[in-house]
């Protein structure tokens, strides 16, 4: 019985969609180094490859019915790491102020603390709010626009204003979603525990 079970688990972990997600993660340090060195065009190439693999692993997972919990965790983790890498690389070159890095990273640390509080009360993670998805999209769109102006100066006149508009709006929505998460977390914590068998009302949704 052990062999087939382990094989099944292995197949779920090492299926092609998950391997593409791992590839995205492996490209994060490459992206960061290229950006920090000022190789913006090559950094955009790496980011484009990552974006394509992001679309491809989601398409294949749905097409082949290989959606796994690991894949659902890897994809948003990769998105956040690319956002962090882009922010750090641009801030390192003084192209964006460090306070923006602190705003974005601070929000995720805030959510991490909320997750620990929920876990201490026996609850699982909260479902992803749509506003958080919009905020992530804005940031994920803003940073390549800022990089585009550095890689191709002739495009800077429009890519920079558009990038900054999306970046500031995305940072605002990022924290707005964080506040909504905090309010929802407080609501969940105050819920009466019906039975020991239910660990989180958020997991039942």
Describe the secondary-structure layout.
Layout: H1 2-13, H2 16-36, H3 40-63, H4 69-92, H5 98-120, H6 130-151, H7 156-189
Helix pairs in contact: 2-3, 2-4, 3-6, 4-5, 4-6, 5-7, 6-7
Overall average residue pLDDT: 82
Which series of helices and strands comes N to C?
HHHHHHH
Assign the structural class, choosing from mainly alpha, mainly beta, alpha/beta, alpha+beta, or little secondary structure.
Answer: mainly alpha
Helix content: over 70%
Number of alpha- plus pi-helical segments: 7
Q: What portion of residues belong to β-strands?
A: under 5%
End-to-end distance, in Å?
Answer: 33 Å
Shape: globular
Name its key features.
single chain, mainly alpha, 7 helices, 0% strand, disordered N terminus, disordered C terminus
Q: What would your notes on this structure say?
A:
The protein contains seven helices and no strands. It is mostly helical and 205 residues long. Helix 2 (16-36) packs antiparallel against helix 3 (40-63) and helix 3 (40-63) runs antiparallel to helix 6. The chain is globular. The two termini are 33 Å apart. The relative contact order is 0.11.
Quick overview of this protein structure:
With 205 residues, the protein is mainly alpha-helical. It has seven helices and no strands. Helix 2 packs antiparallel against helix 3, helix 3 packs antiparallel against helix 6 (130-151) and helix 6 runs antiparallel to helix 7.
